[in-house]
Amino acid sequence: MFERRLEFYAVANSHQGQTLSNGEYAAQALLRAVVTDITSRHDPHDEVFLTALVHPENHASQKCLERYGWRQRKNPDSPYLLFATSLSTLQKVHGVISPAAHADASGPTTDTPDE
């Protein structure tokens, strides 16, 4: 089992709640990029969990993480709120497929020799 901590995640105030030219929210694009990167660093069979610490007064980040599949967990030894989720949950939410899983889904390839 692996744990990956989302240390910094920020969208400029002027872009919060805004969509990019492709219609995707800026926060969603940023999180999708993080999920894609983490996916590329692990075997599809690895059990990976992501965590994030959020200041209790940062309601925008709390709502954003919850919107994209993160859930608040108990964190009694810290002044920060702990949010966590599995990589597989985030892959589903953001439509990210691991390269190995994608290759498996396409089936075996057969090469025919040139005659």
The strand line-up of the biggest sheet is 1-2-4-3
Helical proportion, percent range: 25-40%
Indicate the multimeric state: single chain
By CATH, the topology is Aminopeptidase
The secondary structure category is alpha+beta
Describe the main β-sheet briefly: 4 strands, mixed
Mean pLDDT: 85
Unreliable parts: 108-113
Can you identify the CATH class?
Answer: Alpha Beta
- The ordered H/E elements are EHEHEEHH
What descriptors fit this protein?
115 residues; alpha+beta; Aminopeptidase; 4 helices; 4 strands; disordered C terminus
How does this model look, in words?
The C terminus is likely disordered. The relative contact order is 0.18. The protein has four helices and four strands, in the order βαβαββαα. It has one domain: Aminopeptidase. 35% of the residues lie in helices and 18% in strands. The protein has a four-stranded mixed sheet. The chain has 115 residues and is α+β, with helices and mostly antiparallel strands. It is flat, with a radius of gyration of 18 Å.
Secondary-structure blueprint:
Blueprint lengths: L1 E5 L19 H15 L7 E7 L4 H9 L3 E3 L7 E6 H8 L4 H8 L9
Helix pairs in contact: 1-3
